[in-house]
Design a protein that fits this description.
The protein is built from five helices and nine strands, in the order αααααβββββββββ. The chain starts with a helix and ends with a strand. The mean pLDDT is 88.
Length: 182
């Protein structure tokens, strides 16, 4: 029997309303460690997993006995989207239970000047999005574009990438990534 530790950790973390950053801080590991585990790009040792779970807190036995059913729910009201972002970037996720799911859909809102960081994001999978309003600077590898309403992006997520709101108004984006990475 194979256990999807990454999806299980993501589900337990979200159930406890913790961001990857907060869990990493509590567990004394880097943000990228949590991200790599949740995307199944890294398989933690039992000791490392125990330290991470102590940050929730949840024991190993409870973690491995945790069962979550795939949500059969098909529709979500705007106020039911789950906020998983923080600060000047809002990430509102469709559904709170992505356990066993292979797609994550987000309504993103970048406040003027908001930036995903000087260090580019890198993870497994693919992602794409469509700008609804405002202007978004998207950098993928060494290529940079400023996208406006109706413009879109789509790339392999292992390519280093970064997002930044350009201009005086917030930028709204609808995005999807596979596998779920938040």
């Amino acid at each position: 029997m194979s256990v999807d530790i990454g999806s299980r950790l993501r589900q337990v973390r979200l159930r406890h309303k913790l961001s990857q950053r907060e869990l990493a801080k509590r567990a004394g590991v880097t943000n990228s460690t949590i991200s790599l585990i949740e995307s199944n790009a890294s398989n933690p040792s039992v000791g490392a997993l125990k330290r991470i779970l102590d940050g929730i807190p949840i024991g190993l036995a409870e973690f491995f006995s945790f069962e979550s059913e795939k949500s059969r729910r098909a529709f979500y009201a705007a106020e039911e989207l789950v906020e998983i972002g923080k600060g000047p970037i809002s990430y509102r996720q469709i559904g709170d239970n992505l356990f066993g799911r292979s797609l994550q859909i987000l309504k993103e809102c970048y406040q003027p000047g908001a930036d995903t960081g000087k260090v580019p994001l890198v993870h497994e999978g693919e992602e794409g999005g469509i700008v609804l309003s405002g202007r978004l600077e998207v950098t993928v590898d060494d290529e940079r574009r400023i996208l406006g309403p109706g413009d879109a992006y789509y790339f392999e997520s292992r390519r280093p990438h970064r997002f930044r709101c350009i201009g005086p108004v917030p930028c709204d984006v609808i995005s999807a990534c596979t596998p779920p990475t938040f």
